[in-house]
Design goal:
Family (chains A, B): Belongs to the ComB family.
Shape of chain A: globular
Structural class of chain A: alpha/beta
CATH class of the largest domain in chain A: Alpha Beta
Number of strands of chain A: 11
GO molecular function, one term (chains A, B): magnesium ion binding
EC number (chains A, B): 3.1.3.71
Catalytic activity (chains A, B): (2R)-O-phospho-3-sulfolactate + H2O = (2R)-3-sulfolactate + phosphate
Oligomer: homodimer
Organism (chains A, B): Aplanochytrium stocchinoi
Number of helices of chain A: 13
Amino acid sequence: MYIYLFYIICESLVSLTLTCFVACAYAYTYRIERIGPLSFLLAAHVRLKMSDRVLEVHFLPELTTEKALENSIVVIIDILRASTTITYALAAGAKCIYPFLTINEVVSWKKENIDTFTEGIILGGERGGKIIEGFDLGNSPSVYTEDEVRGKVIGFTTSNGTKAMQSAVHAKRVLIGCFSNISAVLDDLNKERAPIHLLCAGTNGVVTREDVLFAGKVVHSLANSDSNFCLNDEAIMASAVYAQTLVKQTTLDSELRNTLGGRGLTKLGYEDDIELVSKEDVFSILPTLDTKTWSIRR
Amino acid sequence: MYIYLFYIICESLVSLTLTCFVACAYAYTYRIERIGPLSFLLAAHVRLKMSDRVLEVHFLPELTTEKALENSIVVIIDILRASTTITYALAAGAKCIYPFLTINEVVSWKKENIDTFTEGIILGGERGGKIIEGFDLGNSPSVYTEDEVRGKVIGFTTSNGTKAMQSAVHAKRVLIGCFSNISAVLDDLNKERAPIHLLCAGTNGVVTREDVLFAGKVVHSLANSDSNFCLNDEAIMASAVYAQTLVKQTTLDSELRNTLGGRGLTKLGYEDDIELVSKEDVFSILPTLDTKTWSIRR
């Protein structure tokens, strides 16, 4: 309690000192003489606060670094379909999800933990979009039903989503975002002061429009409610990509069908997944990756 | 002459065989029975032709490969400022431009060729946006005047533009595109049948909006005049990024000032360059990189 109070006082002092410094710089630069000192200090304080809400988009994990995401809020975006599947699985009552990079890792983990997780282990994921041989479930959100996953622990590996999580290993918090829980993501980010990084998973190193569309909708919504975000070029572009769907008045479903991922899924016979993935705000849960235990919980 | 005729006949036969094949597939898939055979063959032929005009955008050289660009028309895009500077230099009468990756390479090349190019060698380029020590000119388009470069050979190295060219080493043709010569680029691409790849240089591995805006304008213009292009996700997104500037009715100049590159140049004191770079269709020349001699000529 006392430590917290001490922290608050220190932070206020530092903030006030910086504010005075900025106020002086303003006064010198703009030759302000007549404005009252209080309102002037307030204006300078607002200006100072403007630069501290970073909101960046990264079109691929390869386009950022662990260092850049350190101490930030990172939203992992793999719309078709890992982000959505994880959200559906946790909404259906799965206890938690352990994400893995390789099939070997998840298989070994199951063998080692079969006696620890007596509630039962489900293996899920995909390679090339299809269910992995010997696994219980693929990567379709619809198959993660209550009957299948309630109370169970899931070992999960996908080609891109779980890889994107690796970049966020030093983040302050790691959220899983998709259209099914977009309002929960926005509510959380609106309360945050830490830098926000929206990390698109892409598909095997190729930028995918479905991920950028989601990132764009988040930037569009946050920047509309608070214009003081510091956006990188990718964030401005993502927002423009989403804003164009508003101008064209197309449905999210039709947009997602005409993306690299959407076309790939249609070819594989998973067209129904696209429709499911396009439904907004189905759940209010916020899957969060605990980087210490490397498990995702709601 | 006979070889050409033989080629035309063979191509027609192959095209007709494929058309018949697609027609049969259509007939089987859509259970078409009543439509007249001629109009049906024509429809199938049009469908077949739809897939042969590839138009792809790559936000960074790292997001594509030499293999993917093989036998294509590649447009190198480094709006702020290499593409623009090269166009201005050739328009001012420079004989040709040799692009190099490193400073050492361009300096050695000058030493080796001082007696070959008796018309005179100019060294130009930048590191960190600034003129390189010992070089004649920096990377501002405005300094490549007739007085400085007419009839001369230029050795040129920049951080990103010359690196992007390396990816296009196996391309059919390599063009240098910028807003200053955008109509010349569009006229050329409109006549082409080969796959088109618009290659954004970015800045040190970071995607830059000024390059994507140019690529977007090209996609927007080409796809408006011919809807049969096969676009990748990056092309659709670039087009949306450009289309948003039309919706917002902002000037290109104000958009470029608010990009990563634009802000960087303003900090370095090169704000005037942004205004120059934003001027469309100043020249009708089309700088082309000859991949055999590795030199750029108009």
